[in-house]
Specification:
Layout lengths: L1 H14 L19 E9 L16 E4 L4 E3 L2 H10 L14 E7 L2 E6 L2 E10 L2 E5 L5 E6 L2
Antiparallel strand pairs: 1-2, 1-8, 2-3, 3-4, 4-5, 5-6, 6-7, 7-8
């Protein structure tokens, strides 16, 4: 059980940071983001393509019209293995994430643990997400 909690805290730390309410904006959803997005690749702070055990696996991130954000369970399973947790994924223990547009080009991803602001933009049918740590993800819209 302690491993599961540690794992969930790790996942939350990836997606969340302290809430920044200094510049409140009208919160809504940019409907261009709604849908399933397949991870093409990520780049690090220096702009180099990240090559690791998660590369090329086609993980899918889903943004719903109701504001829910879902991480691919296969990513969670692979991350558990990478962290030495060899038990089955308990789907009930996956925290709920939500998203909303808080400003032009900025979404906020939140859960009960906190919020994280992420820059976003589009290049054709590719969604580009820029995280506070300098990493950038490129996701292709699934048909």
């Amino acid at each position: 059980m302690k491993d599961k909690i540690t794992f969930l805290v790790l996942i939350l730390s990836i997606f969340l940071s302290l809430n920044n309410n200094c510049f409140p904006q009208k919160k809504e959803l940019d409907l261009r983001i709604v849908g399933k997005w397949e991870l093409l690749f990520s780049k690090d702070l220096e702009g180099k393509v990240v090559k690791n055990e998660f590369s090329g696996k086609g993980y899918v991130e889903t943004f719903t019209k109701s504001g829910q954000f879902m991480i691919d369970p296969n990513y969670l399973k692979d991350d558990m293995k990478r962290n030495g947790i060899n038990e089955p994924l308990d789907y009930a223990s996956i925290p709920s994430f939500f998203w909303q547009t808080i400003d032009v080009g900025i979404i906020e991803i939140s859960s009960g643990q906190g919020n994280q602001q992420v820059r976003y933009g589009f290049s054709g049918d590719t969604l580009v997400l820029g995280y506070p740590n300098g990493n950038t993800k490129y996701l292709l819209k699934r048909k």
